[in-house]
Amino acid sequence: MATAIVRFRVADYDHWRRVFDALALTRLEHGITAASVHRNAGDPARVVTILTARSLAAARAWTASDVLREAMAEAGVIGRPEVELLQDA
Questions:
Q1: pLDDT digits (tens, 9 = 90+) for 23-78
Q2: 33: which residues sit within 8 A by CB, 6+ positions away?
């Protein structure tokens, strides 16, 4: 198991959330077994997603995928997301 923590800003949270939710099955097909969404209390345009993956390889593949990159562009992610990959100990 592995975890990916992805931090980024969005132009419109509600629009971003619709795109994120629509990708639930796609994430599962790519080995992402769970996902949670968090917003910064002081700046709600700052979003953090925490993704649980079947393996570190699956987490790496998903966070580097064209599918995710295209979805983030469609969803209005601003700038380059910060990705942290963690391997379960």
A1: 999 999 999 999 999 999 999 999 999 999 999 999 999 999 999 999 999 999 99
A2: 52, 53, 54
Closest CA to 54 of 5, 3, 89, 10: 3
Strands 46-53 and 77-87: unpaired
- Predicted pLDDT at 89: 87
Give pLDDT, residue 77.
98
HSE (side-chain half, CA atoms, 13 Å) at 33 = 9
The first and second tokens of residue 4, run together, are 């990916």
Residue with tokens 């969005």: 10
pTM of the predicted protein model: 0.93
Q: How is 17-81 classified by DSSP, letter by letter?
A: HHHHHHTHHHHHHTTEEEEEEEE-SS-TTEEEEEEEESSHHHHHHHHT-HHHHHHHHHHTEEEEE
